[in-house]
Design brief:
TIM Barrel; 349 residues
Length: 349
């Protein structure tokens, strides 16, 4: 079987495939491509959810402005640095600083935070702070940030616009921003949700092709999980045979096809997968193409306020349990915990 040549009609056939025996072929194919291209190392990225303030009205997200009653927090720099030191102690190579699109985290405040992490630790720093203006992205890159994550969520422009109202007077064009992020020298991460109401199979096939076109270093894929405080909580009654179901199985298919299309990308087994299948979602993700896990380092009191979707996995675990649990799951699969920063081999090619 060819390693990374797979055309639109083949992608569509796999997305519609439901026969377990044939799907087993896809799982083995993705697992082989993963092993041959990024090896058996699973890199751990410590996730710190630094603020749940958000300026946006994204129709699916539990920390958007739709959640009017949600208590909002912004971690102090010292609290964040405590979590960063924890990442070093746990032996992680990367911290991911994630937040809503929070303009209360000023350009300079984030830049100073990045400089401190880079001066005081050997860690790679990934930022995931939303659609910030180019000056911010430049300042943070100058401060030493290594990577930036911004999912484009769907390549269907109409669907995208219907779920991402822009800020007043601005356009929201994440594909454009991703290209700029790459030009600024960041490793670039993106991804999509699977099963957004209104998302079709051809949309999803185009999403996977877009990953390749953007030459992404990191690709996050998770099922859409309705959040009760958001407009997308109500069942839209989309029952067309074109509608992609928001299932665990569909997320694995997209994960596996993404590995085959983008062999050297870093692909996490996401928390959203672990949420739909708490018993073995992480493992199945790792066995079907993923090579990254992102243990949550956010202090528990804040973690419960960062419910972008309900019943999020690990939300009540402390960070030691989260770390120990994930290590056990990884080694039980016969995989190794990756040493070092786990930089993108796609970028190094
Ligand atoms: N279900 C699944 N994933 C979600 N995200 C946000 N809200 C949801 C939801 N309701 C994902 C988006 C975002 C990432 C941080 O979390 O893809 O980019």
């Amino acid at each position: 079987m060819p390693v990374s040549k797979i055309d639109r009609s083949e992608i569509l056939n796999w997305l519609r495939e439901n026969d377990e025996t044939r799907l087993a072929v896809l799982w083995r194919w993705a697992d082989r491509v993963r092993r041959e291209n990024v090896g058996d190392d699973v890199h751990l990225r410590g996730l710190i959810e630094i603020s749940n303030y958000c300026a946006r009205h994204c129709a699916y997200c539990g920390i958007s402005l739709h959640s009017r009653e949600l208590a909002r927090y912004r971690m102090a720099a010292e609290e964040i640095l405590d979590c960063v030191r924890q990442a070093v102690d746990f032996g992680y190579g990367t911290v991911v600083l994630q937040s809503g699109e929070d303009y209360g985290c000023s350009t300079e405040w984030i830049a100073a935070l990045v400089r401190r992490i880079k001066n005081e630790t050997p860690l790679a720093v990934t930022l995931s702070l939303g659609e910030r203006p180019e000056e911010d992205l430049m300042a943070w890159r100058d401060a030493g940030a290594d990577r930036y994550l911004l999912r484009f969520e769907t390549s269907n422009r109409r669907l995208y616009e219907s779920i991402h109202p822009p800020l007043a007077g601005r356009v929201s064009d994440r594909i454009f921003i991703l290209k700029r992020i790459k030009q600024l020298g960041y490793e670039v991460g993106s991804g999509v949700m699977i099963g957004i109401p209104g998302q079709t199979y051809s949309d999803l096939a185009r999403d996977i092709e877009t990953f390749k076109e953007l030459d992404l270093d990191m690709i996050g894929i998770g099922p859409f999980i309705p959040h009760p405080n958001t407009p997308l909580a109500v069942d839209t009654g989309m029952v067309s045979d074109q509608q992609v179901p928001a299932t665990e199985l569909m997320a694995y298919k997209v994960l596996a096809l993404t590995r085959i299309m983008c062999p050297r990308a870093n692909i996490p087994s996401t928390t959203a997968l672990a949420t739909l299948n708490k018993v073995e979602g992480r493992e199945l993700g790792l066995a079907r193409g993923a090579n990254i896990v992102m243990p949550n380092l956010t202090p528990p009191a804040y973690r419960i306020l960062y419910e972008i979707y309900p019943d999020k996995a690990c939300i009540y675990e402390d960070r030691e349990d989260c770390d120990t649990g994930l290590r056990g799951r990884i080694t039980a699969l016969g995989r190794r915990i990756g040493a070092g920063r786990g930089d993108s081999l796609n970028r190094a090619k």
